[in-house]
Design brief:
81% of the residues lie in helices and 0% in strands. The protein has 135 residues and is mainly alpha-helical.
Length: 135
């Protein structure tokens, strides 16, 4: 899942450069979903079927608290708090990218890609604390 998450982020970055801001947001959101799912699975062995980045991050936070890692859970809370609007934009782009008629602006594309990068960076830090890398 991590390889796929990274590929989606690469696509989002390419879409941003190409001026495809809808694609940038959609692919950035997919990167977040897969990255969080990969982290949850790698650390806790749980396969999540949730399709919301914010809900997945909440699930990760809760699992970290349950595992006695409040220090890492608070990092996830800080991430969500700092990027709340960007995470909402990513979630909206997942739905609108499939079913809606919304077009995203360059500034929104940049926000989506930056939030995705930050989320994946935090996830990698959490994993480096708790799980050995296998890819």
């Amino acid at each position: 899942m991590w390889r796929r998450a990274r590929r989606f982020l690469t696509r989002a970055e390419r879409d941003l450069v190409d001026g495809d801001y809808d694609g940038a947001c959609f692919n950035a959101e997919q990167a977040v979903q897969l990255g969080v799912k990969a982290t949850i699975y790698r650390i806790f062995g749980v396969k999540s079927r949730i399709h919301s980045g914010r809900s997945l991050l909440a699930q990760l936070r809760n699992l970290l608290y349950e595992a006695g890692r409040g220090d890492l859970a608070s990092i996830v809370e800080d991430l969500v708090s700092s990027y709340r609007r960007g995470l909402e934009l990513l979630e909206e782009s997942y739905i609108e990218g499939r079913y809606g008629e919304v077009s995203y602006l360059e500034s929104q594309g940049k926000t989506c890609v930056e939030v995705s990068r930050q989320v994946l960076e935090v996830l990698e830090k959490i994993e480096s604390e708790l799980a050995p890398r296998s890819d």
